[in-house]
Amino acid sequence: MAAAPAPMPGALAVPGIEEVHLQAEHWISRLQAPDRVILDRAGIDAQNARMQALDPTLHDLETLPARLPAAQVRDAIGKLSAPPARTLYDAQGRELTGTQLAAFADNLALDAIPDMRPLEYGLVTRRADLRAFPTTERVFSSVGDTDIDRFQESALFPGDAVAVMHRSRDGQWLFVASQRYLAWIEKRFVAVGDAGQVFGYARRMPYRIVTGATVSTAYTPEQPQVSRLQLDMGVRVPVLADWPADTPVNGQHPYTSHVIELPIRDDDGRLRLVPALLPRNADTRADYLPLTARNLLLQSFKFLGERYGWGHAYDARDCSGFVSEVYRSFGVLLPRNTSAQAVSPALDRVPLTGTDGERKRRRAIAQLQVGDLIYIPGHVMMAIGRENGLTYVIHDTAGGSWRDGDGQRVQARLNGVAVTPLEPLLAGDAASYIDRITSIQRIRP
């Protein structure tokens, strides 16, 4: 399919984009029924149950056996922590040596897995990286490009439950299963407790839902583990509704805040739940947001301009993390990665293959609704509306390219959450994004 003629860049130097397009209210004003509920709470609960039952990338930690065979643990680690097939470089541009790679592999301690590995359970105490190997060493595919760390997989958030499957040889890392990912996490960010305490945390009521891009707890020198703690969109924290109104929390009167409960890690690594203050002016709610087009637009635009963070690096997020966190503020569960999201059998999928021609692709694009997720290999975008014959999307992207008025391809490092029209975007010199769409996923009744 030939790429659509590119609209001329305006003052903002991105085709088809004016100041007004960067405002959620502009897209809301174009909708006939922005407050119509797309899926109510019962429908979302049913959708999540369907996702948990049908999508093979999700894990129900509570149904895991108490002890895992060594072969199962070794296989899980091997799938993630396979020897790199490409040359990798460190942050100084030096090629990783065989000795370094052997040290990473040795720290997996595969030979130390017992015949039957008892599971332990824990809660994550702060936002923490998930890694392909038990190391903080950042590695890259090329010299000078230090944004995409090939050992960075994802992140977990305060209160996320994990099942501990193995420990690294140096004792500083845990190989864990979480609901959406298996990977390595630093031990210092996991507090181990009994299963009832760990799984009961997510069921505690009442609670607050983070509806801002990020919020932070109040500063406190008395309890540093819960001081200025970052909570990202969709994180759910229990509220201590019976906290005495005149009793300070960590040295501060609580009347200007919500008294919440957060997990911390004692010196022996055990889980303890402690009170913390979440300011009342922080962008949170007493329940998940209603799933409406208005709210989808408002929530997604809260991330506008945030730096792109591959695998949730930079305390930010990538394309699939972005859409996951937007939908998490409504209580909707999505797989972690684009490869899984794009083919999930639990969603209302419109598949497109290499044999589907321009007419079918244009028809699918014309039928997009606000909140629909559009996938090309390795990337996802969210539809936000149409204007002047163009389809607009919001997405967290490392790149972006289009043709200028002379027909030359312009490569722009958008490198963040951006609004762009879909039609001008190029996936290479000869293919447009529309040519490369593999599926459209919808969260619908």
From TrEMBL:
Q: What is this protein called?
A: SH3 domain-containing protein
Task: Please name the InterPro entries in this protein's record.
Answer: NLP_P60_dom, P60_peptidase_YkfC, Papain-like_cys_pep_sf, SH3b1_dom
Q: Does the keyword Cytoplasm apply?
A: no
Q: Which Gene3D superfamilies match?
A: endopeptidase domain like (from Nostoc punctiforme)
Question: Which keywords are on file for this protein?
Answer: Hydrolase, Protease, Thiol protease
The yes or no answer to whether the keyword Protease is present is: yes
The scientific name of the source species is: Pseudoxanthomonas putridarboris
* Regions crossing the membrane: none
Q: What residues does the NlpC/P60 domain cover?
A: 290-444
What the record says about family reads: Belongs to the peptidase C40 family.
Q: Which Pfam families match?
A: NLPC_P60 (PF00877), SH3_6 (PF12913)
